[in-house]
Amino acid sequence: MTGEKISDLIRLLGSDDPRESKSAGEALLELGEPALPYITSALRNGSATVRKAAAFLAGRMGKNEEAEAALQNALSDEEPKVRKNAAVSLGRLRSQTSLGQLRNALNREKVAWVRPSMVLAIGMIGGSEARAAFQDVIPQSDVESEAMRKALFRTDSPPSAVQWRANAGVLADVFATSPVGLEDVSAEEAVSCGLGRPDLLRPGLLRFDRTIHLKDIMPRLRCVYDARVLLARGPSLKAFAKGSGGDGGSGLASTIATIVQSAKALTDWSSWISAETPLGYRFSLQEIRVPESAFKETLRRLRAELTPLGLEDRPTNYSFELIVEAGRESTDLWLKPSFEPDRRFAYRKTDVGASINPVVAACLARLVRTSASGVVFDPTCGSATLLIERSLLDPGICVRGLDVSPTAVRAARENITASRISHALIEHGDASDPRYWKPCREVIANLPFGVRTRIQDRDLVSLYLRVVENTASSLEFGGRALFYTANAAAIGSALARKPQLTMLDHRTVNSGGLRVSLFLATKRKDNRRAQVGSQCARRA
Q: Per residue in 66-82, is it b (16+ CB within 10 Å) or e — as a string?
C-alpha cells in the first residue's frame, strides 16, 4: 500500500462515523510495521480524535522504541482520552522503561476517570518496581481503589503449585467449547484422539462422557478453546437484567449464592485439586447485563460464601475461573481451570494484526486436509498459524507461505522456527502475482477482510479474483482450496468465475463476535461444473 493510502487511513481515524474510524484502524493494524511511522506521527501531530485513535493503535503494533517514546510523550497530552489510551498501550507493551513516566503521569493526573487506567498500566508491567510505584499513591475513587487492588495482584509472586489429585475424578459433567460453526470438526478430532464422540449440547458447546477427565482434554485437542465442568444449574436471572427493575442487587446475589452453595464439586474442591490455600479464582457474569451496584453486591456475597472454603477472589494469578452464565431458561455455573498453562500454541512467538485464532486455524487445517504428503500453500500467510497447524497434522507435507507485508514474513519465519517444522518456505510477495504460485496439493488462506471504503473494497475484490484465478491454475486435480473471509460476496463472486473449482462446503463461523465465511472447494479432473456461482450467490 502506498504512503498516500496509509495517510488516507490516518485521516479516517478522525471520521465522525465510528464505523469508518474503526475500519481504518483495523486496516492499519493489518498493514503492520509499514503503518507504524504514520501512526506515531499522528500521535504527535494529529487532531485530538486522531491522537486518541493513534494512542490506542500504537500499543497493538508490537514493541518499537519510536512508538514507545511517542506514547510516553502522550501521557502529557492536553486531551484526557489521549492520556488514557497512551497509558493503556504502554501497559500492553509491558516495557520496564515506561514505569517512571507512568508513575509521574499518575502523580500529576487530575482527571478521575483517567487515573485507573494509569494504575492498571503500571500493574500490567509488574515487578517489584511497579509495586514500589504505588507506595505513596492514595486512590481518589472507588474505581481507582479497585484498579489498585487488581494492579497489586499483578505485581504479586506467582501462586503456589496447583495440580490434579492422583486418581481423583471430578464430580461434574465435563465440557469443551468449540468455534461456532466448526463443532463437527472439533468432535471428529476428539474421536481421533481416543476421547470418544462428544455430544453437541448447543452451538459451541460439547459434552464428553463422564469417564473422560478434564485434564485429558486440553493437552490433546487443538480444536477447542477450553475445557470446563458444569458445577450447578439454577433458575433464570432474567428478572435481574439491567432495565428490568430490581432490588439493588440483593435478589441477584442471593440467587447466585444459592447456585454456588449447591455445587458439591466446588465446595469439595480439595478432594480433586491439590493446592495450598487460599486457591485463587476469578469471577465473571456472562450473557446478562446488570446494574453495577447489583454486580458489586453479588461479588461481595460470593466472597463471603467462598472465603471460608479457602477460595480467594483474585483478578490475576488465579487458578480457575468461576463463570455464571445466564441462559434464557436457566443459569449455569462453570468452573474453567487455568492453573495448567496452555502450551498448545507455544510456537506463536510473534503475531501480526488480524491474525486468525489458532483454535479456528486447527479446525480449518483439518477441513482442507487431503493427504499426508504434497505442498500446502498459503498466499496470505500472516504469522503462519494456518501453515503450522496443517503441518502438525502431517509432518511429511511441505508448507509454503507468502505475504505482502515484511512484518508478517518476519513473524511467520520466527513462528515456523519455533514450531520446528522442517519443510517450510516463507516468501515476501504479492498473492495477486502468478509468478509466486507453484503446483500445490492444498491452498489455505485467511484472506484480508478489508475496510468499508471504496478504494479498499476495489483493491479487495481485485485481490480475491486473482487469488482464485491463481488457485485454479496451481491446484492439483483432487486438491482442495479453503478460503476464510468476512467478505462472502467478494469470494463468492470470484469463485463463480472459476467453475473448475467445485464447491465442497460453505459455512459461517463465529470467531471473536465476527461472522466469517468459509468456502471449501476442490479441483476435479473431469471439470464437472457444480454451479459454484449460484451456490455462492445463494449462501453468501
A: ebbebbbebbebeebbb
Please report whether residue 85 resides in a domain: yes
User: pLDDT grade, residue 81 (50/70/90)?
Assistant: very high
Alpha-helical segments (H) within 394-429: 406-419
Residues 293 and 234 in one domain: yes
Task: Kindly give the residue spans of alpha helices, DSSP state H, lying in 171-310.
Answer: 183-192, 250-261, 264-267, 292-306
387 falls in which pLDDT band (50, 70, 90)? very high
Buried b (16+ CB within 10 A) or exposed e, 457-486: eebbbebbbbbbbbbbebbeeebbbbbbbb
User: What's the pLDDT band for 527 if we cut at 50, 70, 90?
Assistant: very low
* DSSP 8-state code for residue 213: -
Q: What is the mean pLDDT of residues 403-408?
A: 91
In this predicted structure, the answer to whether residue 237 has a pLDDT above a threshold of 60 is yes
pLDDT-based confidence at residue 88 (cuts at 50, 70, 90): very high
| Beta carbons within 8 Å of 349's beta carbon, 6+ residues apart | 414, 415, 418
Question: In this structure, are 505 and 406 located in the same domain?
Answer: yes
User: How far, rounded to the nearest angstrom, does the alpha carbon of residue 307 sit from its chain's CA centroid?
Assistant: 32
Bond preceding residue 278 cis, omega within 30 of 0? yes
Looking at the predicted structure, is the pLDDT value of residue 475 above 80?
yes
Same domain as 248, residue 121: no
Q: Domain count of the chain?
A: 3
Position 158 scores a pLDDT of: 55
Cβ neighbour number for residue 62 with a 10 Å cutoff = 17
In a domain, 345, yes or no: no
> What domain range includes position 99?
3-154
Gap between the Cα atoms of 26 and 29, Å rounded? 5
CA–chain centroid gap for 372, Å, is 29
CA distances for 176 relative to 166, 212, 272, angstroms: 22, 11, 19
